[in-house]
Amino acid sequence: MAYAPDSILPNGFLFNPDSHFISSLIMEPKYGDGLRVARANDLTEFWRADYYEQQGHISVVTPESGWREETPEQKRSRKDRFLEECEAVLAAGVPISIAPEGTITQEESTTERSPGPLRPGAFLMSARFNSSPRIVPVALANFDKPAHEAFFACVIKPAFTMEERGVDVDDPATLRTFLKEYRSEFRGYVAEAAALAEEVRQSTSTSPEIITNRDAVSAVDDEFEIDVRALELQPSQQKSSRPKTVFYGSSTFRLWDTLQTDLGLPGALNLGFGGSTVAACHSYFDRLVVPHRPDRVVLYVGENDVARGVSPEDVSQQIARFADMAERTLPDTTFMFVSLKPTPDRSDRVAAVRRTNELIARDVASRERWTYVDWFTYLIGTSGDVSSSLFAADGVHLNRGGYGVLSRVLRDALNPV
Fold first, then answer.
1. What radius of gyration, in Å, describes the C-alpha atoms of the chain?
2. How much of the chain is helix, strand and coil, in % rounded to 5?
3. Least-confidence region, from 145-149, 166-170, 335-339, 407-411
4. Which of 17, 73, 220, 347 is 20 to 30 A from 102 in CA distance terms?
5. Edge-to-edge strand ranges of the sheet holding 269-272
6. For 345-358, what is each residue's pLDDT tens digit?
7. What is the C-alpha separation between 85 and 80, in angstroms, rounded?
8. What does DSSP say about strands 138-141 and 153-156: parallel, antiparallel, or unpaired?
9. Which tens digit of pLDDT belongs to each residue from 189-199?
10. Rounded to the nearest 5°, which phi and psi values hold at 310?
């Protein structure tokens, strides 16, 4: 299927959501395995080669693969090798996903016009291979639309063989007629998928046969997924080297753009993401922190939970469960919890923040690999009020003076005498 412009990543990689959808949500759950027929890379498509070298697939040369200096005999030999590879895979009981249109064309491969003219390859395989593989039609809709505004849909139709269709593939005229008629039939499947997507979008479908994840995405994913993906894709966050210290939590860390120099930790990795809650940090720990296997994790989280009215007892219990999980997942890592900060804009929550810190400190004291860092005290003036001079104009986030205080406290904790 065609692709939306925002399916092209900054490095030029064209991500095909339709084929990945089929591989991960249809073939893998149904068969536990499967291979995709993918076109060979052009000689200059280094980004594509790097990706596909990691994937199990069967390679086929198409016009998009670039010109090949081949004699007719070499071309025939290459095609024979391709068919032999496909036949061996299918004979072993492993399914293959193949696009019968072949090369993508923006004109013919949109939902409104799909499918493009069908090529005979998959149909010849079904008729000529000794394993007599069946063809399972999978029609897709809206994968050519921007992912952030589209409802993807597919319909799966009953499998068939060319023999069951009564088609003699060795008769060129009969095969051409079938391909033309089946293209029209398949167009009806695509229209059905598009109508299904619209039903799901409008929440009007009541069919028990529809499987959908509409409204199944958790509130955590819905709120934070974009920020988390941005962290995963930033070059500075790649797993090329193991960081000694990872800073993880909410915007107090995320906005600290001078963290490494302020703390004298050039190898530190900042994985803070804005507005994060304890539940969000728990949810994304495996994706953001675990791959790095750091020596030390510094955690700042819970302030947003308290600000939303979650009780100190509930916040401290959530953090305790987080600590249990983190210890099991990273058995060789030490952890540091930075106390929650009081803020001028949330002065009515200062008592709740103080109580939350007390409960967390008590739990941390019982853990061998955890350290509690008291920072709350340094943000309270002699009158008992929050020191507004350490905060930005919004009364929530720190200014340079506030980060200066945090830097001094953390340097002492990270590098004890």
1. 28
2. 50, 10, 40
3. 145-149
4. 73
5. 269-272, 245-249, 296-300, 334-338, 370-373
6. 888 899 999 999 99
7. 9
8. antiparallel
9. 999 999 999 98
10. -70, 135
